[in-house]
Amino acid sequence: MAAQRMNARLTTILLRSPVLVTMVLFMLVPMGLAVVYSFMTNGAYGGVRMPFTALAYRQLLFQEDFDGNLVFSSGYLAIMWRSVLLATLTVVASLVIGLPLAWYMACSAPAKRARLLLLITLPFWINTLIRTYCWVLILRDEGLLNSGLRYFGLVGGHFLYNDFAILLGMIYTYLPFMVLPIYAVLERVNGDVIEASHDLYADRWSTFRRIVWPLAMPGAIAGSLLVFAPALGSFLAPDLLGGGRRLMIGSLIQLQFTSSRNWPFGAALATVVSVAILAVLFVVVRRSFNKVPAR
Questions:
Q1: Are 174 and 241 spatial neighbours (Cβ–Cβ below 8 Å)?
Q2: Whose CA is closest to 219, among 138, 101, 83?
Q3: CA 63, CA 32: separation in Å to the nearest integer?
Q4: Which of 87, 121, 282, 289 lies at a CB distance of 3.0 to 4.6 Å from 231, suitable for a disulfide?
Q5: Do residues 166 and 172 touch, judged by C-beta distance below 8 A?
Q6: Which residues, other chains included, contact 199 with Cβ-Cβ below 8 Å and sequence gap of 6+?
Q7: What's the whole-model pTM score?
Q8: Residue 74: which pLDDT band, with cuts at 50, 70 and 90?
Q9: Cβ-count burial of 241 within 10 angstroms (0-12 exposed, 13-18 middle, 19+ buried)?
Q10: Per residue in 83-112, pLDDT tens?
Q11: Cα(187)–Cα(4) distance, rounded to whole angstroms?
């Protein structure tokens, strides 16, 4: 018996080892390096050096004036707030668009469902930089959108280099991450349940509120996490569609490691973002486990 238990444990360890190695190499090690770098001193021309210090975290809230006194600065907090707000709006807009689309796909015939899945995943086959730059061609002053408005006798506007353009680009980029988890859940819904609700004289809104939405909620939660995490750290859409004028956390981190050459501060920002996302994941997972009925 002891030998069998030992073999079973060894088999379990071997089966789990690829996942554990991947998590350590590609998640724990980079995050650990970011944490260590955030507590080091900035090098003369980039990089980091000793000694250890917390100046990078202090820089998030305070700046030194000409006399060397610490003065509260809300500039970085404003960038963080804008990032959280735009990421949240991206999640809400993706959910509003993705839930009906996922439900329509789940209710479609198998052949049509396959074509719709192809259309949803097709953007992943194209480089994100190219897809984002296409929105620049659409939203610029002489782009497709303004040309279409003028063709119909309407007044054009400035649709590029603002929060609207950034939000639109992020919704387009991360919408499939919302649609696919919800579709994966709704695809397994038994159609007899929906039919039974109509037999009990429930209208469409009641059916959606009492049956479809509760069943789709696990997929919606998973999709919200998949959209919020990359949207919060996005830098490609703010850089191209915001023109570098509307910074987000991802853009700010990228600047610290390139032109500003302040690696500890960039690592501190990355650590704060990672901790915030992990905290959200922890809360969501814990609440999900608490809702699981005991056996």
A1: no
A2: 101
A3: 27
A4: 87
A5: no
A6: none
A7: 0.86
A8: confident
A9: buried
A10: 999 999 999 999 999 999 998 998 888 889
A11: 41
